[in-house]
Prior knowledge:
The chain has about 375 residues and is α/β, with parallel strands linked by helices.
Amino acid sequence: MILVINSGSSSLKFKLFSPALKELAGGLIERIGLGDSFFEYKVNGDKKRSDYPAGVADHKAGLKEVFAALRAGGYDPKKIRAVGHRMVHGGEEFTAPTVITPAVLKRLRKYNRLAPLHNPANLSGIDSCRALMPWVKNVAVFDTAFYRTIPGRAFMYALPWEYYAKHRIRKYGFHGISHRYVTEEAARLLEKPYSKLRLISCHLGSGSSITAVKFGKAIETTMGFTPLEGLTMSTRCGDIDPAIPLYLIRTFKLTEAEVDDILNKKSGLLGISGFKDLRDVLVAAGHKIPGYAFPGRVTVEQKKRSQLALEMYCYDAARYIASFAGIMGGVDAVIFTAGVGERSQIVRDMVLSMVDIPWKHKILVVPTNEELMIAKETRGVLK
């Protein structure tokens, strides 16, 4: 069997696959290290939940709970052959699934500074598996690897050359595992060769990105050196004039850490509307979401700002779709995926209404499955 682990700073998501990549179990532990932790999971189709008022201390403790759940469902963790791990950042060095060794771990840790919110958490999952499952191979699958085909004209920033030559400051792109999965799945649904299609994949959620895939290769994407670049997101600002952070520091005497906090955690939908959950933004803007209860009443000001935030969110997606269609010389399908892209018809309709190009191609909603993609990549390494 193959176990797939996606470790966040305070979460641990897992899926267990058979050798034929049939999903056997899966779940998520939330609030690791924070208290009031909970574990929601499904084994053999049975949904269960465990609560931990005292908390789950760390990822190693969380993994032990996963093992207990698997054993209770009839799956022996000792029969797991490999563990595939999502790694957000691999830089230019890691462009393919990689078996973890002590030497690889040492090289990976230097990318923590490029993805401080993600890579340390991903590595925590790897360390926990190595400690508890010394008999298995651990394989890192990288979000950035899908973008190894992006040409220099697209990934370079017009900064002094030495910042790239010595420090590798460039566009890397993220959500690559998701974009690869949904574009390959789109080709299957369209019954056409992946290498013959021009596809635009819209991964819209709390974090959002759009990727252009031409004839089986990623050629452009919206996220850059970090996941901050590109679209308006839940709390991230996306594209802004790069002089703005300097202005904030000089004018308001803010520290580097304070500006980083503003750009990553206090901007986006939250900064404009006051709400970071798009469902709240939609309801406050005047839209109805069946079965969703908005917390409180909406003021006139909240409605106005929520409408603006929603338009900004959709307009950003629209302008990138139009741009990517242009540089590819057309597009065969536009794909929507992730939490918002899959579930919000309102957002999809708004985005498409803002793109003034002939819509002769397909519009597809493809649920992403990063864990299955990681399992495929891991199995490929084992062969």
